[in-house]
Design goal:
With 265 residues, the protein is α/β, with parallel strands linked by helices. It has two domains: 83 residues, Elongation Factor Tu (Ef-tu), domain 3, CATH 2.40.30.10; 129 residues, Rossmann fold (3-Layer(aba) Sandwich). The strands form three sheets. The protein has a seven-stranded mixed β-sheet with strand order 10-9-8-7-11-12-15. The relative contact order is 0.14. The mean pLDDT is 93. It holds the Pfam family DHODB_Fe-S_bind.
């Protein structure tokens, strides 16, 4: 009986490279199969290792992986260009199920690179605005120079309520500034009992944002988070991402807040 080794990656060609900042690029990779926003791939290079990268876009026979240059593996990935190939394993995790949010009022709040795993949700409702009763994206970045997906923001603004804010404005910047939490109270919600909140970002940002949503009247069961944590194998074998009895790479990284609120390191 022949079995497939779950650690064996497949070769994926780089179809496009999109620069966002000096240290953050999106690599558009060939992939044929099912994938959801919030899932992740293990991206690997022989002799250098592998790194878990969230899906930031889903196309026809492609997936987008937005990568920050932060270590040995990601630095080497940045040495590859269109036509080159990377090794992938996945997708892993449960992801965000779009069906949970159709015909709902949605407030999606993302901080920094936390926008990557929820970009697919924003893309979907931007393309299908009639499938939501109201969609607000609040995205925060450290500075205007750190903003990701600038071209997508212009597209999203056509069909969605988009609030882009930065912590530290620079000379010549004319947009909004301040923490993402400052903008939550003013967002109109017609039916708070049925409204959906989606929150992804740094831990403290997520905590403060969820506090604001609860204060506004959101039900815990209607709040969804991505509880990203150091993941290595992606299949629940190594234990690096285990919190109590939960394996983030298998049971998450997307959780309903009723479960996710108990997942603390």
């Amino acid at each position: 009986m022949t079995t497939t080794n779950p650690y064996t990656p497949f070769l994926s060609e780089i179809k496009a490279v999109i620069k966002h900042t000096d240290i953050e690029y999106t690599f558009r990779m060939t992939f044929s199969g099912d994938a959801k926003p919030g899932q992740f791939f293990e991206v690997s290079l022989p002799k250098f290792g592998e790194a878990p990268i969230s899906i930031s876009g889903i196309g026809e026979n492609t997936v987008d992986l937005t990568i920050r240059r932060v270590g040995k593996v990601t630095a080497e990935i940045f040495e590859n260009y269109v036509g080159d190939s990377l090794f992938l394993r996945g997708p892993y995790g449960n992801g965000f199920s779009i069906d949970n949010y159709i015909d709902k009022e949605i407030i999606l709040i993302a901080g920094g690179t936390g926008l990557s795993p929820v970009k697919g949700i924003t893309d979907y409702f931007s393309a299908h605005p009639k499938k939501t009763k109201g969609f607000t994206l609040i995205a925060g970045f450290k500075s205007p120079n750190d903003v990701l997906f600038k071209a997508d923001f212009e597209k999203w603004k056509k069909n969605l309520n988009v609030i882009l804010t930065v912590d530290t404005p620079i000379d010549g910047y004319c947009g909004k500034s301040g923490m993402v939490t400052e903008y939550i109270p003013s967002i109109p919600v017609k039916n708070i009992d049925d409204a959906i909140g989606i929150v992804v970002g740094p831990p403290m940002m997520m905590k403060c944002t969820i506090d604001e949503l609860l204060k506004k009247g959101f039900k815990e069961a209607n709040i969804w988070i991505s509880q990203e944590r150091k993941m290595c194998c992606g299949i629940g074998k190594c234990g690096h991402c285990k919190i109590d009895d939960t394996y983030i790479c298998l049971d998450g990284p997307v959780f309903n807040y009723t479960k996710g609120k108990f997942l603390k390191d």
